[in-house]
Write a structure and sequence with these properties.
Blueprint: E1 8-11, E2 14-17, H1 28-32, E3 36-37, E4 40-45, E5 48-52, H2 54-67, H3 76-89, E6 96-104, E7 118-125, H4 133-138, E8 140-148, H5 165-177, E9 182-186, E10 192-195, E11 199-204, E12 207-210, H6 213-216, H7 222-233, E13 237-240, H8 245-249, E14 253-258, E15 262-269, E16 272-273, H9 281-294, E17 305-307
Parallel strand pairs: 8-9, 8-15, 12-13
Antiparallel strand pairs: 1-2, 1-7, 3-6, 4-5, 4-6, 5-17, 6-7, 9-10, 11-12, 11-14, 14-15, 15-16
This protein binds 4'-deoxy-4'-aminopyridoxal-5'-phosphate (PMP).
Length: about 300
């Protein structure tokens, strides 16, 4: 999915031209993956464009930075305002993807990151749904990866650290080369963790289950949290529960959730159709409710929708 350039990027407190948001080749994070980042979406609503759960995303960004001992030179309110400014100044009234990144810049080399300058950038640009319209409508095919999800004592799985994503990229490439759309990673204990950039859910009767965060090494997804709230409000029994791969094969329905991917049905895992191999009714109901929520169409979820003036 190519990047669609816009006009301005917020870079260290200023709006700079898209092509001028550059770094030196000796930028610390380029060598050691020592940054933290977020992926956020804004959607059009009847009262203008709004960023979905912006404050929660920036909170997670700052929490990731805390884990990596990065002192971010801007606070929550400043970063929330800066994100809205980037959406507004680029005229992204139809919605967009937003990528904030905190990284360690040029000045020090070596594995002690504490002396490096901390830099912050926020870019926003139009971006279609990550796994494609066809996947959103008819479901995607997953492969259990031969790559394992991180052990939480190897890297902090609760944080969104840039370097940690080499694990996701290896799994993604393996799945794509084998003809699948996305990979599922298992945790070191063999239980299901998550996909390369999405959380996973299975539906069993009226129960909707997702792997427990700390044990599975999955990121605590903001979409996952939204789905859990929506599904509970729709009257389903929603729980964190340890899953093994056969729980995916034998689920009535399965779907994944993430800011970029949104809510996507899973139609096959390792060549076994999930249910009858088509998106199930509960998945569709949750997906539709999610899309209405992000567009500010449901009063109950209005506080998730943060308007850009
Ligand atoms: N897991 C991983 C590894 C991710 O990168 C993401 C995307 N941030 C998610 C899950 C889903 O998180 P969210 O719903 O907050 O986008």
């Amino acid at each position: 999915m190519p990047i669609n350039p816009t006009d301005k990027i917020w870079f260290d407190g200023e709006l700079v031209d898209w092509d001028q948001a550059r770094v030196h080749v000796l930028t610390h994070s380029l060598h050691y993956g020592s940054g933290v980042f977020e992926g956020i979406r804004a959607y059009p609503t009847s009262s203008g464009v709004a960023v979905f759960r912006l404050t929660d995303h920036i909170r997670r960004l700052l929490a990731s930075a805390k884990v990596f001992m990065i002192d971010v030179p801007y606070g929550l309110a400043e970063l929330v305002a800066a994100t809205k400014q980037v959406v507004a100044v680029n005229g992204l009234s139809e919605g967009c993807y937003i990528r904030p990144i905190v990284f360690l810049g040029y000045g020090e080399m070596g594995l002690n990151p504490l002396l490096c300058p901390v830099q912050v950038a926020i870019a926003a640009y139009p971006w279609g749904t990550y796994l494609g319209e066809e996947g959103l409508a008819n479901g995607i095919r997953l492969k259990v990866s031969s790559w394992q999800r991180h052990d939480p004592n190897a890297v902090p799985t609760a944080a969104k650290g840039t370097g940690m994503y080499v694990n996701s990229s290896l799994a993604k490439v393996e799945a794509l080369k084998a003809g699948y759309d996305e990979a599922v990673l298992l945790a070191p204990d063999g239980r299901v963790s998550e996909c390369t950039g999405e959380n996973l859910f299975v539906v069993r009767g009226r129960r909707i289950l997702t792997p427990p965060l700390s044990e599975s090494g999955a990121l605590h997804g903001i979409t996952q949290d939204s789905v859990m709230t929506i599904a509970t409000d729709l009257g389903y029994e929603v729980d964190f529960e340890g899953l093994v791969r056969t729980d995916l094969y034998l689920a009535d329905e399965a779907f994944l959730s993430g800011t970029a991917a949104e809510v996507v049905p899973i139609r096959e895992v390792d060549d076994r159709p999930v249910g009858d191999g088509r998106p199930g009714p509960i998945t569709k109901q949750i997906q539709q409710t999610y899309f209405a929520a992000v567009r500010g169409e449901i009063d109950r979820y209005k506080n998730w929708v943060e308007h850009v003036e």
